[in-house]
């Protein structure tokens, strides 16, 4: 029932709508004036304004006008096309028009919001842009979405809690999942925790309930020690290449190799507090349980196993998969302070919170007294916001030039949770908590704060631009380190707190994923975390169709929030792949065979395999060569458009003629 | 239509990629930063589609400055940025032949959150145009020379 | 089809942002969804808001398209102005009994033309504007309401018949009665949302009786372009305020009110409103009295830093008492923690209480789900699967599970849809 005929420009009947956007546009742009000017245009049948065009009521107006006034083109000036172009295409289709007989003009982000200092100029610009939109609308042709088979198979990158959650939920919808994890073991950062808030459950027990569900699910395939190395294709049909490293040991000799190995390196699972062998398990009970060789550190020397000298060999292999959608769950790493900051890496009594959690986990039972490097711990200072909430002009940017000006969300509750557990076990320890704001925001988080207060944790409040300092105590002092700062709970009093241990509540930074960013062309935000399209409209989607985000790769999150984001990502994957078919925009190259002379210039500049080829065909009894496009392979970049000496190629929906008409409209002098 | 009585401003056309400059312009808007209103931003998939002829025609129609805000190395299109650079280079040559100041055409990589580079490009183009004047005066002068 | 018996894959209870998102994510996977909403329109609390943090998008720009997408989705059926009466187990699924309240307007024929509204002589306080503005006894609930169908408030109707005469499609039905609808579904999502803590709860803050003390939600309506005055004025005398103060944690982190938890959204909405007021009343002084600023989400801390740069005054202090002077100006008694904890009194033109969140509805009786001491639905697995309840097949999302901002609600809603879809598949495959 959509109209397929293409009226000539002079026959177009255009409906023009200018949105107030609830004041966002109309506070600056004289929207009524814009509509008035539109009415002067010969092709405009009706021009209206509305408080909110995207509302059901606003959309109904357009639908009715199409039906009642016989409109055959619609131009709407509103917010950015990225937000509502899709919405309005649906509106136009419900009105009975081909959805591509619609053009969206952005009057908010590119006009009212950037010209609030010049309302007259903004109004004039709106008129100009709307006229340009009408000029394009006049030339629009009906288009149909390209329907493609979608592979019902998702790739999840990252085997931490978010990746596991996403994999399980996608498989739950009947879709195949391949889960790849870079390290030899699943579990990610959550495995390095001991108990988790708000339940107090053991982190690894919780994690293993999920790992067991994932590893026994018939639709999920797990590859550890595996990375994505190449990707091509498009939503529904990504061809990915994965490279796997071998574990180096196998079931037969694994235990013996583990026992025989003598080369030791700092144990990254314990954040360097201990050492481990280069043949290792991340932790007892990890999955897979088979040990693996740490290829990065293995010195290549033979190890004697059962009387035989064995040299481990990393047999890398790559394999290809056809994938419909991809979940990025690459997670975070704890912020590591530069050497000397708060005494970190210089004073042995300064640790990060993740290190302290490992220290607590490593103790051999309850020995009645907490010790650190052999010394009893009587007084502890915790310092919040280390690596978070940095201020421009006060704090140095990171080596990559980026200022960590964001809040890392989990550190306040995590710190107080840890402090409370510590005090349950060692009620005689004194804890001094240096904070700027305590952000125990979750439903059950505030109770950690009140409990800590009840347990006589001494809170000291600093100002963000005057953070505490950690220095070595003078020789012969009662305690090894001093924390110095101003306490604004007591009128900025200078304090000097002698302690045995300093815990730095470090923030989160994303795991470096520049390789994925480059390969997939997905954006990072100002804070280097991966960036969603819109925090409310499309909160887990990237601008690349079929690639979604899960967990702390996107921003700091706690476990609950990571799992919710992962499940949300799974829901988006299910929406894309459940039907086994995806629809793509029809923006691909189109050859006008009447103009094509078979020069092949287009093929020379095309970088996509089999997107455009020369085929032999018969024209007026003669065999000739003509360019032919395979839409599924064409990216619609337009390289061929400028290459064709006969102007025989255009990208559908984005024709050169559209731009020429828009330039005509823009250069027209408008009187307002 | 009649000319307005207000002082005539140079016209800047910005061809901005959906994956780069156009999203960057939206980001500038979300940050509520200000720039001049003589700018018309048109979304493009990849500016590699524009031939020299297109740019020259635009100048002849009265566009005083064109900024091509492409996605550079962030482009989702293989070979698109390279092809764009080739076309812009060819256009510079043609502009030289026609006596159009090549400063009127600028190719800049703008990312989706490049607010400062976006503003810098717009401001610089305005400064350039204030210095070198309207394209139609330039073309008229060329006509006289011949 | 028998309109009193409906069948679908999933039932979503609550048409706010969370319920809408859950419904859309299920419907877009091909499942049939029924969305039940108690009010005459879907949209929930979000549709009442002015602009939303941290992007400062207008709230309707995000909400109305979702409302429209729900209304236009062929797999979703909306039952508005309807309430769940009871839920029975039915194998692995459920049978819900729903009461459809009388609108006194025939839904099938009403076009939303509003002629009844223009004809109605009875003005009543507008519930959409939290009773500050006025609206007619029969009206389309608000301009962007979905469905666009009128509703008649029988409690205030004088039965003059003007609306019936004005209606061009003869849709006014004074004799309409409530209807019972039985819905058979396989899974169910609770998205019943929140209420703000009552403004009159705290004696020290004037029990809601002070003239120029309002709560954050009313300020949203004052700031909204669709609001009653379309500008910020004092409710007491209509004067434009020159000095506005926010009192944070007014209804949260307060054992005496039975709300010991943090409500998560109040810091950000106060900062956002302060920025919006600074835009519309550039000369006004704006102060935020706070204990801890909790701007923890993506982009939130930067938002806070921007507000500080704009000149909004943040004062760490505990507001002990609010009273008013002879000109009805509110006076705060505040302990300035950064200034040696001295206690001072400051007079403002207007005070906004940053009220917190409490559950709108306690579903434990009807649904048999476990709730916490406050009435929020409690998950047995709060970390790994926060939308699960103790009842297999029943999921809970958004603010029904705890205070949550819009971004977190939307993710929670999609997560609930994901869990519900997995449940549907597992019962169908006989697992």
Explain this structure.
Chain A contains 16 helices and 36 strands. Chain A has 672 residues and is an alpha/beta fold. Chain A has 5 domains: 148 residues, 3-Layer(aba) Sandwich (Rossmann fold); 179 residues, FAD/NAD(P)-binding domain, CATH 3.50.50; 40 residues, no CATH class; 175 residues, 3-Layer(bba) Sandwich (FAD/NAD(P)-binding domain), CATH 3.50.50; 63 residues, Alpha-Beta Plaits. The N terminus of chain A is likely disordered. Chain B has a 4-stranded parallel sheet, with helices on both faces. In chain B, 47% of the residues lie in helices and 16% in strands. Chain B is of the alpha/beta class. Chain B has one domain: Rossmann fold, CATH 3.40.50. With 431 residues, chain C is an alpha/beta fold. In chain C, the strands form 7 sheets. Chain C has a 7-stranded mixed sheet. In chain C, strands 6-3-2-14-24 form a 5-stranded parallel sheet, covered by helices on one side. The longest helix of chain C has 23 residues. The relative contact order of chain C is 0.16. Chain C has 2 domains: 182 residues, FAD/NAD(P)-binding domain (3-Layer(bba) Sandwich); 159 residues, FAD/NAD(P)-binding domain (3-Layer(bba) Sandwich), CATH 3.50.50.60. The mean pLDDT of chain C is 94. Chains in contact: A-B, A-C. Chains A and C meet through α2, α3, α6, α7 and α11 of A and β4, β5, α2, α7 and α9 of C.
How many structurally independent domains of chain C? 2
Radius of gyration of chain C: 23 Å
Q: Kindly estimate the percentage of residues of chain C that lie in beta strands according to DSSP.
A: 25-35%
Quickly count the helices of chain A.
16
The CATH topology of the largest domain in chain C corresponds to FAD/NAD(P)-binding domain
Q: Would you identify the CATH architecture of the largest domain in chain A?
A: 3-Layer(bba) Sandwich
Task: Note the overall shape of chain C.
Answer: globular
Task: Tell me what the CATH architecture of the largest domain in chain C is.
Answer: 3-Layer(bba) Sandwich
CATH class of the largest domain in chain C: Alpha Beta
Helix content range of chain C = 10-25%
Main sheet properties of chain A: 5 strands, parallel
Going across the biggest sheet of chain C, name each strand in turn: 16-22-17-18-19-20-21
For the secondary structure, the number of strands of chain A is 36
User: Per DSSP, what share of the residues of chain A sits in E-state strands of 2 or more residues?
Assistant: 25-35%
- Class inferred from helices and paired strands of chain C: alpha/beta
CATH fold node name of the largest domain in chain A: FAD/NAD(P)-binding domain
The radius of gyration over CA of chain A amounts to 31 Å
Low-confidence blocks of residues of chain A: 1-5
Largest sheet of chain C: 7 strands, mixed
**Mean of all residue-level pLDDT scores of chain A:** 94
Overall 3D geometry of chain A? globular
């Amino acid at each position: 029932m959509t109209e397929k005929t293409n009226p000539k420009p002079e026959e177009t009947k255009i409906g023009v709508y200018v949105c107030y956007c609830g004041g966002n546009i109309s506070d600056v742009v004289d929207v009524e004036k814009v509509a008035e000017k539109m009415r002067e245009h010969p092709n405009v049948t009706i021009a209206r304004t509305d408080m909110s065009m995207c509302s059901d009521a606003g959309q109904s107006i357009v639908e009715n006008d199409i039906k009642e006034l016989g409109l055959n083109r619609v131009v709407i000036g509103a917010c950015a096309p990225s937000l509502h172009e899709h919405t309005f295409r649906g509106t136009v289709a419900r009105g009975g028009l081909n959805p591509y007989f619609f053009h969206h003009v952005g009057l908010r982000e590119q006009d009212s919001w950037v010209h609030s200092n010049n309302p007259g100029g903004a109004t004039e610009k709106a008129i100009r842009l709307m006229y340009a939109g009408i000029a394009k609308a006049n030339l629009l042709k009906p288009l149909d979405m390209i329907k493609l088979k979608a592979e019902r198979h998702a790739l999840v990158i990252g085997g931490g809690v978010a990746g596991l959650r996403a994999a399980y939920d996608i498989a739950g919808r009947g879709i195949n999942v391949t889960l790849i994890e870079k390290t030899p073991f699943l579990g990610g950062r959550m495995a390095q925790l001991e108990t988790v808030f708000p339940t107090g459950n053991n982190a690894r027990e919780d994690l293993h309930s999920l790992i067991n569900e994932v590893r026994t699910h018939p639709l999920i395939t797990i590859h550890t020690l595996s990375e994505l190395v190449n990707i091509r294709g498009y939503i529904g049909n990504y061809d990915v290449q994965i490279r796997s490293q071998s574990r180096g040991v196998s079931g037969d000799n694994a235990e013996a190799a583990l026992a025989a190995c003598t080369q030791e390196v700092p144990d990254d699972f314990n954040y360097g507090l201990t050492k481990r062998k280069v043949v290792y398990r991340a932790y007892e009970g990890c999955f897979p349980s088979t040990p693996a060789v740490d290829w990065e550190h293995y010195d290549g020397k033979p190890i004697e196993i059962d009387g035989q000298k064995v040299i481990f060999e990393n047999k890398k292999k790559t394999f290809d998969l056809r994938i419909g959608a991809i979940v990025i769950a690459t997670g975070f790493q704890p912020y590591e302070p530069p050497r000397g900051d708060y005494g970190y890496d210089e004073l042995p009594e300064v640790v990060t919170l993740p290190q302290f959690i490992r220290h607590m986990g490593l103790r051999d039972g309850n020995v009645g007294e907490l010790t650190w490097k052999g010394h009893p711990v009587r007084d502890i200072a915790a310092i919040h916001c280390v690596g978070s909430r940095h201020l421009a002009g006060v704090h140095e940017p990171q080596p990559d030039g980026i200022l960590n000006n964001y809040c890392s969300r989990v550190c306040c509750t995590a710190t107080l949770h840890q402090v409370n557990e510590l005090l349950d076990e060692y009620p005689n320890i004194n804890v001094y908590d240096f904070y700027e704001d305590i952000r125990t925001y979750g439903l059950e988080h505030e109770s950690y704060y009140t409990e800590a207060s009840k347990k006589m944790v001494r809170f000291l409040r600093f100002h963000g631009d005057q953070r505490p300092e950690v220095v070595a105590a003078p020789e012969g002092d009662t305690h090894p380190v001093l924390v110095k700062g101003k306490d604004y709970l007591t009128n900025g009093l200078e304090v000097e707190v002698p302690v045995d241990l300093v815990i730095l509540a470090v923030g989160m930074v994303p795991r470096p994923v520049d390789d994925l960013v480059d390969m997939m062309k997905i954006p990072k935000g100002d804070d280097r975390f991966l960036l969603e399209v819109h925090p409310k409209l499309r909160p887990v989607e990237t601008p690349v169709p079929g690639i979604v985000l899960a967990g702390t790769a996107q921003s700091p999150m706690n476990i609950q929030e990571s799992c919710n984001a992962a499940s949300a990502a799974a829901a988006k994957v299910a929406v894309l792949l459940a039907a086994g078919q995806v629809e793509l925009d029809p923006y691909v190259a189109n050859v006008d065979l009447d103009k094509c002379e078979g020069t092949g210039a287009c093929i020379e500049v095309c970088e996509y395999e089999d997107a455009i080829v020369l085929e032999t065909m018969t024209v007026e009894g003669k065999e000739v060569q003509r360019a032919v496009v395979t839409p599924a392979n064409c990216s619609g970049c337009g390289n061929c458009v400028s290459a064709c000496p006969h102007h025989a190629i255009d990208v559908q929906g984005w024709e050169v003629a559209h731009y020429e008409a828009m330039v005509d409209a823009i250069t027209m002098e408008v009187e307002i | 239509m009649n000319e307005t009585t207000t002082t005539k401003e140079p016209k800047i056309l910005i061809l901005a990629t959906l994956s780069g400059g156009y999203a960057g312009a939206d980001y500038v808007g979300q940050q509520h930063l200000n720039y001049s209103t003589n700018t018309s931003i048109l979304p493009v998939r990849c500016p590699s589609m524009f031939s020299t002829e297109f740019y020259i025609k635009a100048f002849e129609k009265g566009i005083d400055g064109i900024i091509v805000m492409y996605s550079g190395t962030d482009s989702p299109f293989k070979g698109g940025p390279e092809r764009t650079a080739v076309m812009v280079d060819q256009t510079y040559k043609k502009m030289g032949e026609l006596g159009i100041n090549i400063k009127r055409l600028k190719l800049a990589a703008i990312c989706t959150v490049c607010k400062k580079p976006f503003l810098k490009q717009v401001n610089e183009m305005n400064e350039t145009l204030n210095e070198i004047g309207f394209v139609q005066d330039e073309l008229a002068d060329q006509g006289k020379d011949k | 089809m028998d309109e009193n018996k409906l069948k679908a894959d999933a039932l979503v209870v609550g048409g706010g942002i969370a319920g809408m998102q859950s419904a859309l994510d299920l419907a877009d996977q091909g499942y049939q969804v029924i969305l039940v909403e108690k009010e005459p329109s879907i949209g929930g609390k979000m549709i009442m808001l002015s602009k939303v943090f941290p992007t400062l998008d207008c709230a309707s720009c995000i909400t109305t398209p979702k409302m429209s997408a729900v209304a236009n989705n062929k797999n979703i059926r909306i039952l508005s102005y309807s309430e769940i009466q009871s839920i029975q187990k039915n194998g692995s699924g459920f049978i819900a009994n729903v009461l459809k309240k009388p609108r006194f307007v025939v839904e099938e024929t009403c076009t939303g033309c509003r002629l009844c509204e223009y004809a109605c002589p009875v003005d009543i306080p507008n519930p959409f504007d939290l009773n500050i503005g006025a609206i007619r006894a029969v009206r389309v609930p608000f301009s962007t309401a979905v469905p666009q169908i009128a509703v008649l408030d029988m409690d205030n109707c004088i039965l003059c018949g003007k609306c019936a005469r004005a209606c061009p499609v003869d849709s006014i039905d004074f004799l309409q009665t409530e209807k019972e609808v039985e819905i058979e579904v396989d899974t169910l999502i609770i998205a019943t949302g929140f209420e703000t803590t009552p403004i009159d709860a705290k004696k020290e803050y004037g029990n809601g009786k002070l003239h120029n003390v309002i709560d954050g939600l009313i300020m949203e309506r004052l700031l909204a372009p669709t609001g009653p005055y379309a500008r910020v004025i004092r409710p007491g005398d209509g004067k434009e305020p020159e000095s506005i103060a926010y009192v944070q944690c007014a209804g949260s982190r307060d054992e005496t009110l039975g709300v010991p938890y943090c409500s998560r959204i109040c810091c950000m909405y106060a900062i956002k409103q302060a920025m919006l007021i600074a835009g519309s009343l550039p000369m006004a002084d704006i102060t935020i009295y706070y204990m801890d600023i909790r701007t923890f989400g993506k982009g939130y801390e930067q938002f806070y830093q921007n507000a500080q740069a704009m000149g909004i005054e943040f004062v760490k202090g505990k507001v002990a008492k609010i009273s008013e002077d002879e000109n009805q100006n509110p006076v705060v008694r505040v302990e300035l923690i950064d200034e040696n904890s001295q206690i001072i009194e400051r007079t403002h033109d207007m005070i906004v209480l940053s009220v917190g969140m409490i559950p709108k509805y306690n579903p434990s009786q009807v649904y048999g789900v476990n709730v916490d001491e406050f009435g929020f639905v409690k998950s047995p697995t709060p970390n790994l699967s926060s939308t699960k309840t103790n009842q297999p097949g029943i999921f809970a999302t958004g603010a029904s599970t705890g205070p949550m901002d819009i971004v977190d609600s939307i993710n929670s809603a999609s997560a609930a849809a994901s869990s519900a879809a997995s449940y549907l598949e597992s019962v169908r495959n006989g697992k």
